[in-house]
Amino acid sequence: DAKTTQPTSMDCAEGRAANLPCNHSTISGNEYVYWYRQIHSQGPQYIIHGLKNNETNEMASLIITEDRKSSTLILPHATLRDTAVYYCIVTRTSGSARQLTFGSGTQLTVLP
Amino acid sequence: DGGITQSPKYLFRKEGQNVTLSCEQNLNHDAMYWYRQDPGQGLRLIYYSQIVNDFQKGDIAEGYSVSREKKESFPLTVTSAQKNPTAFYLCASKRQGQVTEAFFGQGTRLTVV
Predict the structure, then answer these.
(1) Local confidence band at A93 (pLDDT 50, 70, 90 cut-offs)
(2) Cβ-based contacts of B43 with chain A (< 8 Å)
(3) Which one of B59, B97, B105 has the shortest CB-CB distance to A43?
(4) What pLDDT, in 10s, does the model give residues B70-80?
(5) Do A103 and B42 touch (CB under 8 A)?
(6) How are the residues of chain B apportioned to helix, strand and coil, as percentages rounded to the nearest 5?
């Protein structure tokens, strides 16, 4: 299984873009990059996923490097409600369900 | 509305007692998961199931048991053999074999005194 490495914590000013990095240097060709976030004492919430192209939805943008060894989640205009732990995971669509494993994530704190 | 429901939200038990946490989903998802989360930590996989009547151990299965008699339900029993049962427990489900996201319940906070 591809492992991910994320910074333990980051701060961002309210209204600014939050850029959260993730390294997944052992990712294989059939593995997707997924991002989830967890607001304190709640269940994680899906944000976005991608394979090799950059993706954007109403919540965020996902930039994946050409070699796919790292990615960046971008929250374009961070608000106080975006304060949460952000998890980057890689998983295949086929194979064992065990692929859905989480690391420690990045604690993003949006400052007023 | 479709979703995944965990109950209860808070649970208190005396040490030495078994306790079962409920997880129900009406999303018609094949795969279901149980995670444990300790304060300031990430999610650790306890058990997962890809199909009815089948389940597999995750990374920290000792002291826990599960069943998957129905597609919709994946209850977790925390047994007296679990040395440190006090934690936040999260259940998730996902459609297998497709590029879809996992859905999580709101969690059960178990306190053993």
Answers:
(1) low
(2) 44, 87, 102
(3) B105
(4) 999 999 999 99
(5) yes
(6) 0, 50, 50
